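From the shared-data thread, chain only:
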Amino acid sequence: MIDSEDVKQTTTELFEQSLSQSKEEHYTLRLYISGTTIQSVTALQNIKKICEEYLQGRYELEVIDIYQQTEAVISENIVAVPTLIKQLPLPLQKMIGNLSNTEKVLIGLNLLPKKK
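Structure, as C-alpha cells:
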C-alpha cells in the first residue's frame, strides 16, 4: 500500500525539480513587429523588460520587422502584429498584442502556472 505522505513528498519533489529546471532553461523568442508603430514599440519595450526581469541571461530575442522581411510572415503564418513566438523551450507559443499584460505573458512563457 502506498502511504499518502510518500505521494505528497514525491509530488512536491517533482514540482521543485521542474521549477529548478525551468530556471535553467534557455528561451528563444521572436517578436514580429510592423515598423515603428506605437503598438510595435510598446511590445518591444514590454518584452525586453519582462525578459530582463525574469529571464536575465537565459534568452535570445530576435525582432523581425514584417516590412523588411515579408517572407517571414508567410513562413511563420503571422496574421497580426505585434506577435511574440516562444520557440524554445517547447511547446511553441504565440502571443498577439503589445504584451502589456505581464501576467499573461509570463503564463504564455510558462513562467507562471495557468489559473484555473
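The longest helix spans residues 4-22.
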